[in-house]
Design brief:
Elements lengths: L3 E5 L2 E6 L18 E5 L4 H9 L3 E2 L8 E3 L4 E4 L8 H9 L3 E4 L3 H10 L12 H12 L3 E8 L2 E11 L2 E9 L4 H15 L4 E5 L3 H5 L3 E3 L1 H12 L2
Parallel strand pairs: 2-3, 10-11
Antiparallel strand pairs: 1-2, 3-5, 4-5, 6-11, 6-12, 7-8, 8-9, 9-10
Length: 229
Amino acid sequence: MSTGYYQLKNGRVAAIEGDCPFPPLTDALTEPNGLIAIGGDLSAARLLSAYKQGIFPWFSEGEPIMWWSPDPRMVLFPDELKISASLKKTLRKNLFELRFNTAFREVMTACSQTPRHDQPGTWITRQMIAAYCELHAQGFAMCSESWLDGKLVGGCYGVKISRMFYGESMFHHVTDASKVAFVHLVEFLKNQGVGMIDCQMKTPLLASFGGREIARDEFMQNLTKLVNF
C-alpha cells in the first residue's frame, strides 16, 4: 500500500516511498494525463516494475518523481509503421551511418538539451539519465543512432522488456536524422518480435508514423502478453 496521499485540485494521488507498490491503474487521475503516484525512486527495480504495469516516470528538475498511466495511450504497432514519401527518399540516400547502443548516454543527454515547443524545460534530468544508463547497463534500455561525418546527429531511446518496447525521446541536429533512426529502430524491434511500441502521449510526429491511441485496458491486455512472452 502507499504511505499516504497528495491532495490535488482534481483529486488525490498516492504518495509512495521505499518499495511500496503502485496503486491499481483505476486510481489514476483522468486529469492531468493519468497521474497515478508521487514519490519513490528511480532504481532499476522500481522502473522495471512500473513499465511492466503500464506506468512511466515524468517530472521536471526540482519536482518529486511523478508516475503516469494515461488513458487513452498512444502506441505504434510495428506492422503499422508509415513512412512518408519524402522520408523514403531520404532513406534511399543513405545519408547517415546507423548504429545501435554505441552512445546511449550521449543520446539521452542530447534529448535532454533539445528545445521542445510545448515544454519550457526538460524532463530528462541528470537523475533520469543516471537511472536509464543503469537500465542500459542491465540490458533493458537501448538506443538507435544516426551519425554523419563521425558526429552523432540524431537518435532515439527507450526500454525493452521481452517483446514490449517503451519509447522515451528522440533528438536531431540534422534534418530527418531522428526520423531515420526511429525507422531503423522500429524495423529492428519488429525483427526482434516486439509487438507494440508505447509512445505514451499523442503527438503529430508519432501519428504521422502510424501511431494511434488505444484504451488503457486494451493497452494493458497487449502489454501483459508481450512482457510475459
